[in-house]
Amino acid sequence: MNEKTPAIFLDTDVILDLLLKREPHFISARTLFARIETGQIQGFTSALVLWNIYYLVEKYASRKIARARVAKLRILLSILPVDDRIIEQALQSDIKDFEDAVQLFAARSQGIQTLITRNKKDYPKAEIQVMTPREFLETLYSAG
């Protein structure tokens, strides 16, 4: 991880906003990914998110499109592993949704300090910043 470039973990909903062009969230998601493509932001997600993305895109589009989208995401984002330690932390946490807990602990295991999601309420007591795409972009713009 490059210490000077902001590192963010992207939750499933933000990636789906981009891939499925879900309004009104598409613009913020597209802007985040544009910044990742230009190297202004380091983007991370987990293997679990890729599985979810593949499943949902295949369900709503096709296998061919799902494979292409996941292949592109693997180029743009660093994919974090989900191991036994992360699963154990998720099981022991107070976070109600197991998937959300896995995402949080995958991010924390790699020292990522910002998790981007539209569902901030799903991450109480996260011990890292949890922001919406819009909030994160506003902090980038205000920082220069």
From TrEMBL:
Enumerate the InterPro entries for this protein.
Answer: PIN-like_dom_sf, PIN_dom
Segments forming domain PIN = 8-121
Q: Which organism is it from?
A: Leptonema illini DSM 21528
- This chain's protein is named PilT protein domain protein
